[in-house]
Design goal:
about 0% helix; about 650 residues; 36 strands; disordered N terminus; globular; mainly beta
Length: about 650
């Protein structure tokens, strides 16, 4: 498989390189239209978003989400053990965006000491990050954009002309990375297609650049992905099942160190999703439907380690059921997507055994209708849409809150010169009742309640920028500002109430150049994040300070040797913090790889990777910082890994 990569956080930014067969093909620049809309599809990258393609994932060979987003300066990942990793876009935690995996909405972050996602990157085909003004069909409550993860299918892995195949991958890394492997079988025959894939990681605690062991950091992710599709006449039905888990001994608060307790306790985090989708294989201008249903469950469990104290056990359960029905109407100028969606979300919290609260249940119900147009008019492109949603929140005391509201978005671009495009976009988004990190309930007394004036949340996004494409060189710049009103505030009060305004403002820059057999690119992001007009410290979980971050990458192919080499430089500038936290130091981390396909071993790829080449001691930007009450979790020191992949 080859390499296809260029992400521009500020506009046009895509370079595609040749694939399949080092000796026969070299990297070639794919002249991609810089437009906001092209052939009825929205270009996520054209307005400051990010795309990590299937080929990118093969190059990165990520073992976790930190490695997955290593080349994206706008996306930061808080460090620590796998279940503690939190994903932030422009300083905004992932739960502020509409997040889906294969179209199924994902639960928000349940607890301020856990991470954003539970999945194995081995399953991933691509990731799209729509930053800022998200489209109406991106999903409900897209406060600051949308993140779409797509997993592989049988047709992604099958070689041309084959109807059955398999893939096995095995890697080993030092510094606690241990062994990771995946095995997939897939095929397509007589209208049926199928894929079954399993993965597992098993390692030890890693050491920082200073040689300090990080307790509870052993990788332990595992999962199952199963897909079955059937096509008949002009119809297609697809059934998907995904199971992800992490079961390992962890510290109680995985995202920070506390001197009071560094004991390890069993912890289990699991995610199960089943989805069913109907589409047509013969769409027309007026008939291109999609019917999608899903059910999912997210669980978090740890034991009662303080039997008679005001602390200990945690048992969280989330269940979702929902779906959508939509149709795409194709016009001469582009397309219009219109539909309805719904979601029923149930939460359960088994509170501390000694606070008298017991099991608490809460729920939300959402029903919405939406339409999004993506149109091209000469040098003008426009993506605009609206949705209207009803939302109901029932708290643990049986108290109900109901409301409805409208959302609207519009982004317009104009090609001022050939290859040079200006754009501007804005959105007002109605969020319904923002439940937020509901696991706070497990530490609240029995009389904890919801304020009677608890209101639905809202967000506003603005972005403007410029894109340029001059063949081998591409680049862009984007300014953005996001404000979120009426978020939930669980902490430091005897009741659930609305938070003050959160705000993220800044800009991104990007440039890249391709010379046929290789490419080099750089992106830079500056973000200022505030709460109620004041700078946020690195102990906040919903928003976090980011400051200046950058990524530089290079890839080169040597076709005569069946060899690819490349590397990434991750940089973060220093940040001054509040009196409760120490300043965050700047850091520079270098990662490198070499990939070889031996001619004598057909279908085999060998990859040597070195992460943190110079053994830097640092903690990842957006992590919990060094403060008065706790200390940061530092990232792994130098880690060397070897991966063998066999396609058969």
């Amino acid at each position: 498989m080859g390499i296809s990569r260029f992400m521009a956080l500020c506009g046009v930014s895509y370079v595609a390189f040749a694939s399949a067969g080092f000796a026969q093909e070299v990297y070639e620049l794919d002249m991609i239209n810089v437009s906001l809309v092209d052939e009825g599809q929205e270009n996520v990258e054209a307005t400051g978003g990010a795309v990590i393609s299937e080929e990118d994932i093969e190059v990165l060979s990520p073992q976790n989400v930190s490695e997955l987003f290593a080349r994206e300066s706008a996306v930061t990942v808080a460090g620590g053990a796998g279940p503690a990793k939190r994903i932030y876009v422009f300083g905004m935690e992932q739960s502020n965006l509409a997040v889906t995996i294969d179209g199924a909405p994902q639960a928000g972050t349940s607890w301020h000491h856990t991470g954003s996602s539970v999945f194995d990157p081995a399953f991933l085909k691509s990731v799209e990050v729509e930053a800022g003004a998200a489209a109406a069909d991106s999903g409900f409550a897209a406060a600051a954009g949308a993140v779409s993860y797509e997993t592989v299918s049988a047709y992604d892995l099958l070689d041309e002309g084959d109807n059955i195949g398999g893939r096995a991958s095995l890697s080993y890394g030092d510094n606690g990375q241990g062994v990771a492997g995946s095995l997939a079988g897939f095929g397509a025959y007589n209208g049926f297609d199928w894929l079954f894939m399993v993965s597992k990681q098993d390692g030890d605690n890693y050491e920082t650049g200073d040689g300090d062991e990080v307790l509870g950091s052993a990788p332990a992710a595992g999962g199952i992905l199963a897909k079955v599709g059937y096509e008949f006449d002009t119809h297609r039905i697809e059934l998907n099942y995904a199971h992800d888990e992490d079961k390992e001994d962890r510290t109680i608060k995985m995202n920070l160190y506390q001197s009071t307790d560094d004991t390890l306790y069993p912890m289990e985090v699991t995610r199960d999703t089943i989805s069913l989708k109907y589409t047509t294989t013969a769409p027309t201008d007026l008939w291109d439907p999609e019917v999608f249903l899903y059910v999912s469950e997210n669980d978090f469990w740890r034991p009662n380690y303080v039997v008679s104290g005001y602390n200990g056990d945690m048992d969280l359960q989330e269940d979702q059921f929902g779906g959508k029905i939509q149709n795409v109407f194709t016009l001469d100028a582009g397309s219009i997507t219109a539909g309805v969606d719904f979601n029923e979300h149930d939460y359960s919290v088994d509170a501390y055994g000694d606070n008298g609260a017991g099991v608490r249940n809460l729920s939300t119900t959402q029903l919405g209708a939406y339409a999004q147009a993506r149109l091209e008019f000469g040098r003008f492109d426009i993506s605009t849409g609206a949705r209207y949603d009803f939302h109901r929140f029932e708290d643990w005391n049986g108290k109900r809150f109901s409301d409805s509201g409208a959302s609207a978005n519009a982004t317009v671009s104009f090609e001022v010169l050939d290859g040079v495009e200006l754009f501007a976009g804005a959105s007002e988004t109605w969020l319904g009742y923002v439940v937020g990190e509901y696991a706070y309930l497990h530490a609240r007394d029995a009389d904890f309640y919801t304020e009677s004036d608890f209101e639905a949340g809202k967000s506003r996004n603005v972005k403007v920028g410029l894109n340029a494409n001059f063949g081998a060189f591409q680049g862009g710049v984007t300014y953005f500002k996001t404000t979120i009103k009426n978020h939930s505030n669980w902490y430091g009060s005897d009741s659930l109430k609305n938070a003050e305004d959160y705000e993220s403002e800044g800009y991104t820059l990007n440039a890249a150049y391709s010379w046929g057999t290789g490419r080099v690119g750089v992106n830079y992001t500056n973000v200022d994040v505030s709460y109620d007009g004041e700078d946020i410290d690195p102990g906040n979980s919903v928003f976090t300070p980011v400051g200046d971050t950058a990524a530089l990458y290079v890839d080169q192919e040597f076709a005569e040797y069946n060899l690819k080499v490349g590397g990434t430089v991750e940089w973060a500038g220093s940040i001054d913090c509040t009196d409760s936290f120490e300043p965050q130091d700047a850091y520079t981390v270098v990662n490198a790889y070499a990939e070889w396909q031996p001619q004598t071993l057909s279908g085999t790829t060998l990859r040597l990777g070195v992460d943190n080449l110079f053994d830097e001691t640092y903690y990842e930007r957006s992590s919990y910082g060094n403060g008065v009450k706790a200390s940061a979790i530092y990232a792994p020191g130098r880690t060397i890994s070897l991966t063998a992949t066999l396609d058969f």
